[in-house]
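Quick one:
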Amino acid sequence: MYARSTCLALSGAPRHRNAVTRRASWWPLLVCLLGYLLVLAAWSAPGQGTDDAPAQPEQSIKAAFLYKFLSYVEWRPGTFPQPGAPIVIGVLGATDVAEQLTGIAAGRKAGERPIEVRRVRATDALDGVHMLFVGRDQSAHVAELAPAAQRRGVLLVTNYDGALDDGSAINLVVIDNRVRFEVSLDATEKSGLKLSSRMLSVALWVRPAS
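Output:
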């Protein structure tokens, strides 16, 4: 009886430990996968309503994306003159998005910084602007604005096909009724900016640096 019990103990214990080890080894992968899916869900805002939720205007979703981007950017040293200086989002064209963004930013912060939305013209200097959103109606100005944005460390965000070729850093696109975004690492590096790997992991497409 003793020998049988000992045999069962010796043969059963390793199997139990191996099973526990196998289950434990899956936990980091499972947690990582769940984290990725949650991030993807947060970034992939729907462009149209479903049976369970009312339709959300596309311009409000794009405005929400602009607000989200602020928390995933590492600005180059010396960008802000004071610790409590606001992050300024300049908007060229896209009146509807500007209005939605103003409402979203009111009373909110990106990190510890308040957010200011400023309407700009194509001929305005980019002094004091940290992110510049150029609407589709002003896309003809992107190619000429991109070099200035890169020199000044401004994150240039656009909203039309082929914008990355014109020097945009982030371009909003609509795929299958969802607002997504593509990124040019070449443009962000030329601007002296760094985007969070968490943000890049949910981008529709990331163009590598040249």
